[in-house]
Amino acid sequence: MKRYIIPIFVISILLLSGCDNYLERNPLDQISSSTFWKSKADFDMALTANYGLNTTGGIWSYLLPNWDCITDNSFGQHNNFSSKAIASGDISSTTGGYISLVYSLSYQAIARGNIFLKELSVYKGTDFPDADKKRAEAEIRFLRAFYYFQLYCAYGDVPLVLEPLTLETQEQPKVAAAQILAQVITDLDFAIANLNSVPYFQNTGHVTKSTAQALKARVLIYDAYGNSGTPNIEKLTQVKDLCLQVIPQYSLSPVFEAVFQDKGQSSNTEIIYSVNYLAPDNVPTYAADLIYGDWIVVSPLKSFVNSFECTDGLPWGVSPLTDTANPFSNRDPRLSKTVFVDHPDWGGGNVHFPTNSRPTGYGLKKFLCPENTPYGYTTLSQQNSVVLRLGEVLLMYAEAQNEIAGPDASVYKAITDLRARVNMPPYPAGLSKAEMRERIRKERRIELAFEGLRYFDLKRWHIAGDVLNKVTDGMLPYKWDDKFYHWPLPQNEIDKNHGVLVQNPDYK
Amino acid sequence: MKKNLMRVWRVNPFAQKILLAMRLTLFLMVLSVFSAYSSSYAQKTKLNLKVQNTQVKEVLNQIENQSEFFFMFDNKQVDVERKVNMEVNSMNIDQVLQKLFEGTEVNFRIVNRQILLFNENTNSAFSQQASKVSGKVTDISGGAIPGVSVVIKGTTNGTITDGNGNYSLSNVPENATLQFSFVGMKMQEVAVGGKTNINVTLTEDAIGIEEVVAIGYGTQKKVNLTGAIATVSGADMIKRPVTNAGTMIQGLMPGVQVTQNSGEPGNEGVSIRIRGTGTFSSAGSNPLVLIDGVQGNLSDLNPNNIENISVLKDAASASIYGARAANGVILVTTKSGKEGKISMEYSGNYGVHSATKMYELITNSAEYMEMFNEARLNSGLTSGLYSQDIINTYRNATDRNLYPNTDWLDLIFNPAPTQTHNLSFSGGTGGTRFDISLGYVNQEGIMKGFNYEKYNIRVNLSSQVNDKIKFGANFSVKKGVKSAPRQGAADTFLAAMSQAPTYSPQLADGSGRYTFKAYDFEYNNKSPIAIIDNKVNRNTDDYVISSQGWLDIQLLKGLKWYTKAAVNLDFSKYYDFRAQVPLYNFRTNAFMTLLDVGGSGLIVRDDQNVYKNLYTYLNYDLGIGDGHKVSAQAGYSMEDNVYQYLNGYRKNYPSDVLRQLNAGSPSVQQATGTQNEWAMMSFFGRLGYNFKDRYLLEANLRYDGTSRLNPDSRWGVFPSFSAGWRVTEEQFVKDLDLSWLNSLKIRGSYGELGNQNIGLYPYQSILALTSNYSFNDASLSSGVAQTSLANPNIMWETTSILDFGFDLTAFQGLNVTFDWYKKSTTDILRGSQVTGTVGLNPPTVNNGTMENSGVELGLQYTNRVNSGTFSGLNYNLGFNIDHYKNKLVDFGAREISGYSLREEGYEWDSFYMLEWIGIFQSTTEIANSPKQFTDATVPGDLKFKDANKDGKVNNDDRIPISGRYPAFNYAFNLSSNWKGFDLSAQFQGVENVKYFVNNWGTIPFVQGSPPTTDWRDRWTESNPSTTMPRMYWGWGAPERIRRNSSWYLQDGSYFRLKNLTFGYTLPNHLTQRAGIQQLRLYFSGDNLVTLTKYPGLDPERGGSGSFVNYPQNKIYSFGVNVKF
Hints:
The complex is a heterodimer. Helix content of chain A is 43%, strand content 4%. Chain A is mainly α. In chain B, helix 10 runs antiparallel to helix 11.
């Protein structure tokens, strides 16, 4: 017996170690890259993930209102995305928040798109007709244009990446802002040429030709004011033309708040693009009702509230309807649809008492759903985040046309349509071009409040310093310096690029 | 075995006698103390013999073969060559022996299974004045020691003590000296001097020549160790009345840093670091814990089951565990039964826990309101203030039900009892040994709503097939039952901190309804009382079942084959139910909102982990003669782990009574679950060489393969080498005749280790199921995306340790162990620093080096007072200290994350922030100081240092500040006993460590939380404080007080009396009447005294972060140990 034991020992070890696949363990709930990109269904899922990316980060979806915390509209007590530091002028390459996230999240989305485009270009399967491939490419390029536009607005010169990068090619120099803009326009033109031409509300949530047109209008109207704030009429003419192509396909939602509340959003004829949520599985963990209704992440400023007219179209304090004891009465109805005092009150006892501090005494009501009270972690907020809508297009049209041709009837009509929906009177006749310009800018602030556009409006009109340095009720000292027209690139990106990526000269 | 003993005895009867007696007593150590028992085997065992013309020694052999008896004798005294004829049937041993030695002078004595044969008359020749001497041998606690060898010095005449420790020796010359010896005890010599009764107390031998410690896959004599191994016995651990075995090893071993993060029952968050934080990779710095050789978890153990713990600190000791050993290895050996009488032992403890310290908050409503108003106004908040009317109403109120001064912390913190019970049965017979134990712990939390119960059962069995083959099995089950508010202790605590004193938890109308606030403009977190009372809990049942079987075969002389197979199952299940609780306004009784429970509904989650391990090895020991000894080991191990979970959720429940999934509405429900796995395969070996116990060499090698790496790089080699020189074994040292120096060993080692916890599939290119999207607002489409770059070429990260040390024993009782080490981890597996433009998560790469270097010193002094008042006092003094320095050697571009800096040349995660240098006292001072950011600085604000001297203070003035790792850890231990009394104390401290702490409890009014009372001394115009700044309003405060600065950095150094135990063992003669072998009563107190400058609750905490933390416990406990 004894003499067999050692051989048995050796053999048993050899037997055990012989089964080499003992060490072959593969993920059981994830897909290996070698088995993907093999059918149209794979591309459909990849396309979905390109749309879906924006639902989670939130910076360009349900957290869009937070952008107004770096403007004269509101204060963000939680300092989300470093809004306090940015508003008070503490902007440096290490500020973090928006300063670094716009960069990283944009390139994350761009990379996802670039991977898709590359795989699509080499896909040979017959289950994916060329027309469908073109349309899929157009959707991805629309999204890529959207993110490059964010980079363009925030930083100006940034790297231009159109291919998937690897560890070897990861260090990329920046290119001139104009080249970024040109790429945005190229992608949008491709999208306009290849997307479905039905309006967005008839296209089951995929972006359409008019979506791309509306975004292109937004890009061009931003670009039109250049570095001076003086409009470029040629570019505004393009904006006007784009708006005129979009406007006939859409109509204003009869009820203002229905655009933002869950119940009114399905097939809403005003929405040109929205980021969609669906309860219970696809909602943000800390969604709109909770963060705006209960946490008071966004606190509208007193001066913002004061900028709403009375129902007679006259400024509050000037109008005879001014009621200082009941400041919300006799006001532009959009005030009480946008802002609440102390707590959101939907009538009939449907009230929510916020648990967090209300630094200004006001809260943001525009994006809350009455049926979701009381707001808390339980709340499954599935209201979609509206990114583009007819209201903005009408305002862009009016703004462009006023600069091109002065306050003609079409300018008045666009504004009148918008104000009529909330029973506000039309503008008085006979406004000068400059007076109309001021009116339209105020109208944008009211109509598009907390839709994430105010900061970029202040920048493109080059009035950021005039406006922001005068804010006195902002809960912190506001400071704008003209170098903020372009932010610094995030310091960790400068560090990781080993000299290939050069800091914006204003922040060296 | 028996035959070997016989052989030794006969070949070299004279010199080996004592050694034999010592060996024999090994078997007797835990044998019966009842005389009744000691003969019971003899009485029960019936023998049959039939011999013709056979030598006596052959008869004795036959008896040994058919029974468990064995004989000891001197063949000069006993004629075993004599031939006899005999036939007995079913006779007792004494009858057989009487018959066998009838007519000779040979007498015998039966102790249990040993039988001593001696010649009655041989010794009478020595002295005409010989007489009989008898007495008793006890240990220091007064317990009898059976099996002690008692020999007349210079002769072979002797005996061994019986089960009661008694001996009796005839024919002892008056001038003789008696030698008393027993394994593990110091030998004592007593001159007879005509006495007829000599009682002796033996003390433990501190040098422990034979002390054996557990090492990887085996044991080693302590004197022959060449690596750095620290050990602690289970008996030393269980002095503390705490319930987690991990906590118990705190302060007992140098170089083993243990931090208990929390006093929460069943969730202590014990962190164990061996020689510091070794890596910054996600592989982590937790040591490998092996329980009887198989991976496990200290907190799952019943501490009473632990025989001893060995900690393998250097690479030489640990490298036999290769890729799992980078952070050191903790070897736990559980108790096994010993041959002999079955003993039963009960130990019980009842303790009362309270917080070591509690915050002092402003609980007077009127004072709170005034400070609230002041803080808001200072912060520029002019709305939401308490009116003077309200303040006056509270101040002058007589009905405190309506106008309370609620102390919320007092409501949720109360002293709480803990009880532990342990019952064990241990023993062995006929080659089969067992140790069976039952344990129960019931610990109520000092924070309301936190409770833990733990049940442990362990069965350790071993048996012998024959003298070559042994086998055994260890089986243990743990059940933990934890109930706790679902968001945990820190959350419940901060929720309590945030409540204003102006309202009570429930309405004053006695309806029992819960309150939200008194005034709408007040702020708070959720009501902790409503959470606790409504059982918004996550209740977890956790089962850990470990089973292992082993086989040990002696193949040839010196060649052993050992195999163990183990399966560990870990099942846990939790129920997380979120009741809907309405909250009302305290004054108006109007409904206000629902309690914030983080969503509604029920989550049920089942977790399951199955770990399997099989290892087998050969051991070969060879003596080549002339003092050369070689030992070799070769082995193989395979292990795999499969984890899975299943999670179900339903949102809507009609009531909070029925808390099962099916009781909820199926309208909103979710299910998730997955499974993952890893496997490892390893070869290992050890080669040792020993020359005359003077020069010791050892080499270890492990070859590990893992499923976590690419097939091309998945195998790694982890070698180590060590050497020891026992200086005191050298002849030239012996010639010096240094009586004070008992032993000195110098040792050194170098080796490499790996760290296998590097993620499950880090090298694979995987697409994630992510970013689902609803295009049509009605259904959800699945998204798939590549989210990471893959790097298939990753390898093991490697930790190499260089270690030099010495072990010294002097003055018979002083032991010194010293080590210096340098531990360096290279090729650290980490997310590569990928640029943002790549847009994907970084791949795992091998890049980065971290280094820890340090020293460790341990001192032990054991002594016994032999004269004076305290004669018989035994005491042991211990001290240990360790220091290490962490350094990030190679990292790449620096990273700053919050207040942490990761930069080459600095310690990992160095504190990085503005340096706070004082408080601005005047506008002049502000004007003359560098401008701080864009702040509207006013007197009373924090003043920061312009570190780069550019005339302004901004983020560029942040500087690295040391203190992330302590300068040193140290501990003192004292234990002593005297006449049945025992006293022990453990002191433990950490020096020069800092914590960055913020939020609730630091600046006031975070979520409305009342200020701590030291804010009464805040800066005001009339109180120009230099330490407490102007008071601002919580998170609404301006950035100038909330910025990361050293104002928030607190000194966490402390020195504390960790444990004090005082016990009394009742005299043996009293307890024996009740059939009790030993009865000890004791008091044990934990965390009784703490010296610290730390301003928070307890300086012993897991690290930086939120100021609030479930407090540590101060424990007063009483206990009893009873042995039968």
